[in-house]
Design brief:
By secondary structure, the chain is mainly α. The chain has seven helices and no strands. The termini are far apart. The relative contact order is 0.11.
Length: 115
């Protein structure tokens, strides 16, 4: 499970085992063993180093049996929500901003069709 997720996430990032090894400080052979499920239970410290380099939540490595896509999207969504919060946008105002975004999309479509 962890091995498959690691392999999938590493490839999505466009990293080779050597690059992941260099950036994480974990030997290439150990990473390979994790991916091939030879080492099925790496330490949390190892997993944290890997998740830091891959820029994913630790859960993305641990999620059972499903694609890691949802976890990646959840992390992006949480980061986006944190950015909104920093700018002072409150949850109560989201519907108003959605209407504004829909209006902008509509305007962009009109511009595209008139070209």
């Amino acid at each position: 499970m962890i091995g498959k997720n690691l392999s999938e996430l590493r490839r999505r990032k466009g990293l080779s085992l050597s690059e992941l090894s260099d950036r994480s400080g974990i030997s290439k052979s150990y990473l390979s063993n994790i991916e091939r499920d030879v080492h099925k239970n790496p330490s949390i410290q190892i997993l944290e180093k890997i998740s830091d380099v891959l820029d994913v939540d630790l859960k993305a490595l641990l999620i059972n049996g499903h694609s890691t896509e949802k976890v990646l999207h959840d992390k992006e969504l949480y980061e986006f929500a944190a950015e909104l919060k920093k700018t002072g946008i409150k949850k109560d105002n989201i519907q108003e901003y959605k209407q504004l975004i829909d209006f902008i999309k509509w305007q962009n479509e009109i511009v595209k069709t008139n070209k």
